Amino acid sequence: MSRAPAFACALVALVLLGAGRGAAGQAPTAPDEWRPFEGNWSAVGTRQTLPTEGDRPAAILQVSGAVALTSGEGLSRGFRGEAIFFYDGASLGVGRCVWTDNHGDRIFSTLKGEAVETGKRILATITGGTGRYAGATGEYSFTWQYVVQAEDGAIEGRAVDVKGRIRRGEVPR
Q: Which of 45, 148, 151, 161 is most buried, judged by most C-beta within 10 A?
């Protein structure tokens, strides 16, 4: 028997074996690649303050509104963004955020930054998700273009330069 047919048979066997492993789900699957995204966020909500020993009050903010992504392969273009944020009146600002798309799938994140004021930057870490975003990781940041506060605690603002990257979890086997 010549070497060419034996090599061809071995190659076909390897290909079939490999195809069988993938079809059976035995081979590990790699998570998605990093996918950059950009957009903006318009939000309204409430702000409650508490006097501190310093010149700035501590504050709790709860806001929600439309997150519109202008780029981001594999992501919905629109989400309802909701966040709760605590600022201690000095330097600590932390919170939680959830973006929900029109299918009910969610992206969860933690927030860190300064007071929620015009020109202030917020950093976020994506900590997971549901549905098509299950197992998501990543980060994003944004800058408050403006924040308007009323005497009654109402607040509204617009965040621009929402820029980040996301990697979805492992592909189900």
A: 45
pLDDT digits (tens, 9 = 90+) for 53-78: 988 899 999 999 999 999 999 899 99
The SS3 call for residue 171 is coil
Rg (CA), the chain: 23
Give pLDDT, residue 119. 86
Q: How far apart are the C-alpha atoms of 168 and 34, rounded to whole Å?
A: 8
Tokens coding 26? 């035995």
DSSP readout, 3-15? HHHHHHHHHHHHH
Instruction: Give pLDDT tens digits for 127-151.
Output: 999 999 999 999 999 999 988 988 8
Which token pair is 154? 């109402």
